[in-house]
Design a protein that fits this description.
3 domains; two-stranded antiparallel sheet; mainly alpha; 208 residues; Arc Repressor Mutant, subunit A
Length: 208
C-alpha cells in the first residue's frame, strides 16, 4: 500500500467520480481505476460501489476513508516537521469538563509558549466519550478517569482521587466514621452520575 493510493482513493471519494478525480490528479482514468483496484485487491474487500451516476464508498470504504484521512494528515505533518526542522503539526487532546476547567487555559498557554508551531485542538467530553474517541483515533491524547490499560494505550497515572459519601447524618443506614466500605452503602438510596459517566461504571463494577 502506498500513500499515493490513499490520496487517489480520498480524491475519488471527495468527487464521487473516477473521471473528475483522474482529471484533478492529472492521470488517465484507466490508470486511476487500476490503482484503486490494486488497493482493493490488497485489502481483499470492495471499497467503492460503481454505477452509471458515479462512485460511492461502501461501508468498508467509509471506514477505510476515515483512517486514510488520518494517515495522510500524519504523513503531511511529518513532511512539514522535517522541512521546518522543529516540532510542528496538529495534536488533539481530550479533557473531561472538570479537568478542562482547571487545565484547559494553562495547557493552551504552555503549548503556545513551548511549541508555537503545534496546532492544539482541545475536546471537552465525559471520560467514556473520550475513551471511545481514543480507540477510534480521533484523539492523540486524553485525560480520562480509570483508564482500561487492556486497550493497548500508553497510560501514565496522574493522580489518585478520594471519593466521599455525602448525606444527612440522620439518614437511615448512613455509616459513621472517617472511612466507609462499599458493603455499608448497599441499602442507601444513592444519587450517582449518569450511565455514560466513567465514575458510574467504576462504582457499578466495584459494587458488583
Amino acid at each position: 500500500m502506498e500513500l499515493r493510493q490513499l490520496r487517489y482513493f480520498v480524491k475519488v471519494c471527495e468527487l464521487r467520480s473516477m473521471g473528475r478525480a483522474a482529471l484533478e490528479l492529472d492521470l488517465a482514468t484507466s490508470a486511476l481505476s487500476q490503482q484503486i483496484s490494486r488497493l482493493e485487491s490488497e485489502l481483499s474487500t470492495r471499497l467503492l460501489r460503481r454505477s452509471s451516476t458515479g462512485v460511492t464508498p461502501t461501508d468498508a470504504g467509509l471506514a477505510f476513508l476515515q483512517q486514510a484521512h488520518l494517515t495522510l494528515r500524519h504523513a503531511d505533518e511529518a513532511v512539514r516537521a522535517a522541512q521546518q526542522a522543529r516540532l510542528s503539526g496538529h495534536v488533539s487532546i481530550g479533557l473531561p469538563p472538570t479537568t478542562s476547567s482547571v487545565l484547559g487555559v494553562p495547557l493552551m498557554r504552555a503549548m503556545a509558549e513551548r511549541y508555537p508551531d503545534v496546532r492544539l485542538h482541545l475536546v471537552e467530553a465525559l471520560s467514556g466519550h473520550l475513551a471511545s474517541m481514543l480507540n477510534s483515533r480521533q484523539l492523540d491524547l486524553a485525560v480520562v478517569f480509570q483508564a482500561d490499560t487492556a486497550r493497548r494505550w500508553s497510560v501514565l497515572p496522574l493522580l489518585g482521587e478520594k471519593l466521599f459519601v455525602i448525606g444527612r447524618a440522620d439518614l437511615p443506614g448512613m455509616p459513621a466514621g472517617r472511612q466507609v466500605r462499599l458493603a455499608q452503602l448497599g441499602a442507601l438510596p444513592l444519587i450517582l452520575p449518569s450511565a455514560s459517566h466513567g465514575l458510574r461504571a467504576t462504582l457499578q463494577a466495584a459494587f458488583a
